[in-house]
Design brief:
Layout (H helix, E strand, L loop, with lengths): L15 E6 L4 E6 L4 H7 L24 E5 L10 H4 L9 E3 L9 E5 L7
Parallel strand pairs: 1-5
Antiparallel strand pairs: 1-2, 3-4, 3-5
The protein binds FE2/S2 (inorganic) cluster.
Length: about 120
C-alpha cells in the first residue's frame, strides 16, 4: 500500500530556482523547497481569487482556493500530497494546490487558472 504524506516534504535547501508567474509576467528566484503559495504571497502575488485572499485555510490544503496550473517537469516539484489526492479526478492533471507544491527546479505557474471549455 502506498501512502501519501499529509504535508509536502521539504527537499534539501541551498540553491535557488527560477519560478515564472505567467499571469503576472514576473520571474522570481526562489529558494529551493519553498511552497508556491509562500513564494507568491511574499512577493505580492495573490494565488487566491477575490476575497479568498482573506478567507482561506492558511495553506493546509483544505480550501482549494490556491489552485494553480503548472508548466513544469515532474522533477521540478514534489508529487501530489494527500491533501491534493481527493481533487485529482476533478481537475486537469496539471492543476495543483500552490500551498502543497514545493519547487525544486525551474517552473512556470498560472495562478487562478480557468477550467478548459468542454
Ligand atoms: S491555501 Fe487552502 S488549499 Fe491551499
Amino acid at each position: 500500500m502506498v501512502t501519501m504524506p499529509d504535508t509536502p516534504a521539504a527537499p534539501a535547501e541551498g540553491h535557488t530556482v527560477p519560478v515564472t508567474f505567467l499571469r503576472e509576467g514576473v520571474t522570481l528566484h526562489a529558494q529551493s523547497g519553498i511552497t508556491l503559495r509562500d513564494l507568491a504571497l511574499a512577493h505580492g502575488i495573490n494565488p487566491h481569487p477575490h476575497v479568498r485572499k482573506l478567507f482561506n485555510c492558511g495553506g493546509i490544503g483544505d480550501c482549494t482556493t490556491c489552485v494553480v496550473r503548472l508548466a513544469a517537469e515532474p522533477a521540478a516539484v514534489n508529487p501530489p500530497t494527500a491533501a491534493e489526492a481527493q481533487w485529482r479526478d476533478r481537475w486537469p492533471a496539471d492543476w495543483r494546490l500552490s500551498c502543497q507544491v514545493r519547487v525544486t527546479g525551474p517552473i512556470s505557474v498560472e495562478t487562478r487558472p480557468r477550467r478548459p471549455r468542454r
